[in-house]
Amino acid sequence: MLFRQCAGGIVFFNDKVLLLQNEKNEWVFPKGVIRNG
User: Fold this and answer.
1) What does pTM read for this prediction?
2) What is the per-residue pLDDT across 5-24, written as a single tens digit (0 to 9) for each?
């Protein structure tokens, strides 16, 4: 079984919200993988 530690968040700036377009052309919230270090 694969275990991954990931984190994400919702970024607000005034009345705007940050969204990113991924490689599948989907709109997603910013997120990533947590690495040791």
Assistant:
1) 0.62
2) 889 999 999 999 999 999 99
Is residue 33 scored above 90 in pLDDT?
A: no
Q: Which residues neighbour 5 within 8 Å (Cβ) at sequence distance 6 or greater?
A: 33, 34
CA distances from 28 to 1, 2, 9, 25 (A): 25, 23, 10, 9
What range does the domain containing 5 cover? 1-30
Query: What are the tokens at 8?
Result: 């994400």
Assess if residue 9 is contained within a domain. Answer: yes
Domains contained in the chain, number: 1
